[in-house]
Amino acid sequence: MLGPGDLGDQARAGAVAQLELLDAPPQESFDRLTRLAARLLGVPTVVVGLLDSDRQFILSQVGLEEPWASSRRTPHAHTFCREVADGERPLTVADADAAAPRAESTGADFGARAYAGVPVFLAGECIGALCALDGVPRDWTQEDVCSLQDIAAMLAAELELRTARLDRDHARAALSDSEEHIRLAFDAAAIGIAMVSLEPGSAGRLLHVNEAFCRFLGRTEASLVGLAIEDVTHPADRELSREVIGALAARERSLVRHLEKRYLHADGRTVWGALTTAAVAPSDGRAYVIALVEDVTERKQADQDLPAIANVLRRILSGEDAREAIVQAAVDIAGASSSYLLERDGAEQLVVTASARLNLRGVHVPLGEPSATAHTYLSGEPMFMADPAESPLVSPELLELSGGRSIMWQPIFRHEEVVGVLCVCWAERVSDVSTRAARAVALLTDETAVALAHHEALQRLAAQATTDGLTGLPNRRAWEERLSRDIASARRLQRPVTLALLDMDRFKHYNDTHGHAAGDDLLREFSGRASVLLREGDTLARWGGEEFAVLLPDCPSLSFVESILHRIRAAVPEGQSCSVGYACWDGLESAEQLVMRADRALYRAKAMGRDRTASAEGDPSTAAAHRPFPRVSAAGSRRA
Asked: What was the pLDDT predicted at 411?
């Protein structure tokens, strides 16, 4: 039996604490169940006790005498509840006086002679007991024990419901935190952001602006908020501005991307902004526009005649690989024959990540050996050679691969740090590069730095939004999207789909014993092992904590499903185990209903002793409501 300071008690106390019920006032939902137990068994006293680390807390009671009824606590060493909970099985005492050696440890403080108790479980953890007490000796029947177990199950359901409500409240609090983070990101963003009203009577007025937008116009936030956007728009573009606001307010458009327009700076200058807007209609009905404004004044002034750069930006916004667009733009701008882009690959070398009219992708250039590329990268200075074949800094192999008779190397800066080199090659000798071409290529490298940062940011954001940071698996959001798609596909194609939920057995105990770092390692190793066991099209995701979700579309039989799940269970490392509950979509139910059935099956697997697989299809409580997957005949009639 575990003592009060052992790991088992710590896990139990943690589960009890998460309910946030300790020292809470009596609650009718629990008291109703204790009264029901007293009536069913015909006993004067019924107690529901939860075991904290150093006491028994009386969650609910009927007929209990003072001082226990008021104090609602007893020490561990003198509680019948403790003995039932430690044993995790029913226990009865017909006459405590006749069982004198253990009377003191089974609740003699309550002044009772006969006891019957059953354990109360929450998420597989025994957290306390439901006990019936009588002041006279009594021979308890099996029916008495079964009645107590039924009421204990109802009590566990109430506790599960409370846990769900607490999870909901915590999620709402997390959402509130997320909104605060979004507000901070709005204010700190490097790009100008403005909120513009779409409400009748105030459409086009600035509601909120960030610091970058204020810098862009040379104005303060106080001077901008409340102004119409037309008031800071160049007269030549005001009609365009009215058309955009009107289309968004009328919901003829919900998104405007990269619209370049002129604005009026506070010092009288005309500045150019690349505008992306999205209409927002929140639940309170106050519609507005989020406008992202990138300052493109310098680019406009420098490359009015450079459509290739505009093409680069359009391709970046379209989601294409910006690198390929950049090297092609370099060829178009400079009138060159080829171009390639190099980026850092480790500490000692650069690698070609994109090339136009060449096949150099993957070629490495060492930084520790003399070369024009290494010199440009390390010094941050551009270089042009009309006759590179005569320079010791250019290898014959590079000249042969690139076909260049004249070459220009242009460093790519990001925040004063060189992050790459853009090389432009001419197949025919050029004596020098025109001012316009040199300036255009230099401008293109500025856009390259922005594009690379943009591309990396999008990749990070996409990964963070759909990937679990610990295991690298799809997270719950990505899995729910995949579940919706697979069910829609199964409904359309009339094919089966199976959902399984996996939960590591006694994972909290493992964490407490080996440390959280070891627990994280176990989850990562299991994820890697289990992933390779799946078929193409299957999905393994981290559902949360130590729980995982598996989606198995188009499995031919239940035995096939269970063979996959058996292999996944066997993949749990370090001698640990997991329990699995699964359900097959019945062709009619929603995704939420399918998840609930799989979750009930998982609960049954835990209740049956853990380290096993349980099917919702074998649950008699769901057999009638969930028929086998329906098929549709060619004539369209449904048959089982």
From this structure: 92
The answer to whether 155 touches 118, Cβ cutoff 8 Å, is no
Among left, alpha and beta (phi > 0; psi -120 to 50; other), residue 63 is left
* Bridge partners, residue 114, by sequence: 134
- Amino acid identity of residue 227, one-letter, is L
Q: What is the largest CA-CA distance in the chain?
A: 113
Average pLDDT over residues 454-480: 79
User: pLDDT above 70 covers what percent of the chain?
Assistant: 83
C-beta neighbour count of 461 within 10 angstroms:
10
Please classify residue 501 by burial: count the beta carbons closer than 10 Å to its beta carbon, then call 0-12 exposed, 13-18 middle and 19+ buried.
Answer: buried
Phi and psi at residue 77, to the nearest 5° = -65, -15
DSSP secondary structure string, 518-581?
A: HHHHHHHHHHHHHHTTSPTT-EEEEEETTEEEEEEET-S-HHHHHHHHHHHHHT--TT--EEEE
CB 230 within 8 A of CB 238: yes
Strand ordering across the sheet containing 73-74: 73-74, 56-62, 45-51, 125-134, 114-122, 91-93
With a cut of 70, say whether residue 3 has pLDDT above it.
Answer: no
How far, in Å, CA of 55 to CA of 111, rounded?
19
Q: What is the mean pLDDT of residues 54-81?
A: 78
For residues 144-168, b (16+ Cβ closer than 10 Å) or e, as one string?
bbebbeebbebbbeebeebbeeeee
Closest-CA residue to 572 (of 547, 552, 553): 547
Do 486 and 497 meet the contact criterion of CB atoms below 8 Å apart?
A: yes
Model pTM score: 0.35
- In this structure, which amino acid lies at residue 603? Y
CA dist 580 to 277, 503, 538, Å? 47, 7, 16
For residue 553, the cross-strand partners are 497
Tens of pLDDT, residue by residue over 161-213, are 888 787 777 767 666 655 566 677 777 778 888 888 888 877 888 888 888 89
Which of 190-199, 278-287, 395-404 has the lowest average pLDDT?
A: 278-287
State how far the Cα of 615 lies from the Cα of 622, in Å rounded to an integer.
Answer: 11
The answer to whether the CB of 483 falls within 8 A of the CB of 591 is yes
Q: How far is CA 520 from the centre of its chain?
A: 17
Q: Quote the CA–CA distance of 91 and 75 in Å, as a whole number.
A: 19
Q: To which residue do tokens 């050029």 refer?
A: 430
Q: Is 308 helix (H, G, I), strand (E, B) or coil?
A: helix
Question: CB–CB of 349/373 below 8 Å?
Answer: no
